[in-house]
Amino acid sequence: MAVVNFYSGFEYKWGQTGGVIDLQDDQYKLGWAFIGSTPPSVEQFNKLQQLNDEKFAWLWGQFKSAASARKVTLGANDLLGLNKLLTAATPDASATVKGMTAYASDAEAAARTVKTKALTPYGLGLNLQSSARDTTAGKILTVGAFGLGRAGADTTIDAWPAENLSTLDVGAGMYYVPNAQGAASNLPAGVTNQGVVFHRQSGSGGGQLYASFDGELAWRGRRSGEYTAWNRALAVGDYGLGAGTVNPANGRDSVNPFGWYYQNRTTTWGGGSFFLDMPYGTALNAGLRLSTDPYTDNFYLNGGVSGKKEYRAACKIWHNKNFDPDTKADKSTSIPTFATAPKTNQGPVIYVIDRQQLLQWQTIGSFTGYASLNVGRFVWGTSKNARVDEVDAIGQVVAPTNTRFVALVAWAEANGHVVAPGDWKKGAFVFSKVSAGSFRLPDLRDQFIRATGTDADTANARVLGTAQKETVRREKHDVYGLKSGGDIHTLDRAKLGAIGVSASIGLPDSIDPGIIYGFVQTGSGVETRSANMGLHPRIQV
Looking at per-residue confidence, does 215 or 330 come out higher? Predict the structure, then answer.
C-alpha cells in the first residue's frame, strides 16, 4: 500500500470512498459552531475535507491547463513552475482556441488570404518590400524606402531613380538628387544642382520641394500631367532684401535681379554706388535704377535702354537740399558743387572746391572722368606759389596716379608730348615717363616763348614744344656822307636820324677824308635779350 503524496493528492479527494453527509449552506457558514454542538460524526468530517479538496483541485486544474497550453512542465519539487507559467510565450496554434491566438502559416502570411489568424514576425517579413523602391500595394516599408529613415544618401537606395526630376511614376518620398539629375532638371538660376527633393505624384497632379546642399529652396506643382516652372524661395539677405546691401551678381555696369546693391565701380551710366535695380521681365532687360552716393543727399534715376541690359545716363534728382523751391531757381543754371572731383558722372559740368575750377566729364586718351577744359595749357604764373588749378613747370617728378595729375598725364600722351627719359631736356615742352610711379614735367624756366611757324633764318618749321638756342642776327650798316668815288660830302643828318643816330652825339658838319666814322653802342651784359618781365612758367591741371 503506497503512502499518500500531496502532489498526486490533487487528483482525488478526502473520504471519496467513505460516507459523507451533505452540509447545508447555513451549517457550513456556522463552521465549528455547528459541528461542535454535538459530538461530530465521521460523515461530517469527510464532507468538510472534501469541500477543501474540491477547491484545491479546481485551482490545480487551472494551473495545469495553462501550463499544458504553454508547454510548461510542472513538478512536485519545482518551486519556479508558477513563474515559468506566467512568463512563458504563447506557442504557435493551428486553430482558434478561446483565450489563445491562432497564427497563420507561412503560405497564408505570404498570400495574405486569412482574416482570423495573426502573423508572426517571420510572417510579417514575408510581406516586406522587395526593394527600397517597391511600390506594390500592401507591402511593408523598410528603412530607406523611398529615401525615408536613412541618415545618409545611398545612390543605390534613396537617390532619385530617373534622368531628371520631371520623370513620372516615381514613388512618393524624399530623395537624394545627384548633380547630374539636378543639372538636367532646369532648376532656377543660382540654385545648386545637388540636393534633396520631397516628391509626391497624384495621378496627373503632384508637387516637388527641392532643398539644395547650399541651402537654396525651390518648389513647383504639377497639374494635368505638366510641371509648372520652378519657384525659388528668397532668404533674408538675398539680393540685399531684408538685410544690408550685397554685391551685384552682374556688376554695376550691367543689370541685376530686383534688389538693393553696393559696388564702388565707375560706370558710364553714372549714378551712385548704392543702387536699387528694377529690371523688366525674366530676361532682365533694363527697367529702372534708383541710386545714391553713399551717405550724401545726391540721388539719381536711370531709365533703361529698350531691349538691352543697360541703362541711360543718370538724371540727378532735385530736392529741397539742392534746389530752392521758394526762389524757383532754374536747375539748368545751377551747377552741382563737390568738395572733390567724383569718380562717377554727376552731370556734364560741375564745380569742385578743392580744384577751384569748373570740370567737365570728358574722355582724354585713356582717361574718362572730370577734367578741366584747360588741362595742359601753358600759363604765366603771377602768384608766389602755384594755384590749385596749376602746377609749376620746373622739371619735377609727380605720381601719374595722383588724382590731380591723371588727366594731365593722359592729355600729354594724347598730344604727343611724352618722350623717352633720354630725350627729355630742359627748355622743351615735353614730359617723360621715368617709371611706373614717376612722371617728369617740362622745365620751362629761363625761356622766352615763341610762336610756332617758319624759322626766319632757316625756313625750317618750328615743331610744337621744341626748344631753340639763342643767337645774334648779322647786321649791315651804311655810312651816310660818302658818295661813290670817294668824294667828300656833308653828313646827311636826316638819314642818320632815321636810323636812330641823334645829332647830339657831336658829329662834325663834314667828314674828314682821313677818318672812317662808325657808330658803336656799349653795354655790360653777357647775353642778347630784349627788355622783359619775369613770371613763373606753369601748366594748368
Answer: 215
What values do phi and psi take at 286, rounded to 5?
-60, 135
Query: Residue 455 and residue 461: Cα distance in Å, rounded?
Result: 6
Predicted confidence at residue 75, as pLDDT, reads 83
In what order do the strands lie in the sheet containing 390-392? 378-381, 536-540, 390-392
- Report the mean per-residue pLDDT for the chain: 81
- 367-to-94, 266, 337, 377, 404 alpha-carbon distances in Å: 100, 12, 22, 17, 13
Q: How long is the chain?
A: 541
pLDDT at 232: 92
Number of H helices, E strands in the chain: 9, 22
- The DSSP 8-state label assigned to residue 83 in this structure reads H
β-pairing, 418-419 with 431-435? parallel
Average pLDDT estimate for 35-54: 78
pLDDT at 93: 47
The torsion angles phi and psi of 56, rounded to 5 degrees, stand at: -65, -35
Measured CA to CA in angstroms, residue 464 lies from 104, 378, 449, 456 at distances of 114, 12, 11, 16
Cα–Cα dist 433/412, whole Å:
11
User: Side chain identity at 247, as an amino acid letter?
Assistant: N
pLDDT tens-digit map of 369-382: 999 999 999 999 99
Query: Tell me: the pLDDT tens digits for 491-518?
Result: 555 555 555 555 444 555 555 554 444 5
Per-residue confidence (pLDDT) for residue 520, from 0 to 100: 47
Q: What are the grid coordinates assigned to 177, written together?
A: 538628387
Burial of 330 (0-12, 13-18, 19+ CB in 10 A): exposed
CA distance 479 to 495: 10
Q: What is the DSSP letter of 162?
A: S
C-alpha cell at 138: 500592401
Nearest residue to 86 via CA among 74, 70, 109: 70
199 or 72, which is more confident: 199
For residue 4, pLDDT over 80 is answered with no
Greatest C-alpha distance within the chain: 218
How far is Cα 353 from Cα 191, in angstroms, rounded to an integer?
49
Q: Burial, 400: exposed, middle or buried (Cβ in 10 Å; 0-12, 13-18, 19+)?
A: buried
Of 411, 405, 445, 409, the residue nearest 428 (C-alpha)? 445
Residue 381 β-bridge partners: 536
Cβ neighbourhood burial of 67 (10 Å; 0-12, 13-18, 19+) = middle
Tens of pLDDT along 435-447? 999 999 999 998 8
Q: Residue-wise over 209-236: b if at least 16 C-beta within 10 A, else e?
A: ebbbeeebbbbbebeeeebeebebeeee
Cα separation, 385 vs 406, whole angstroms = 21
Residue type, 142: T
Tens digits of per-residue pLDDT, 258-273?
Answer: 999 999 988 888 999 9
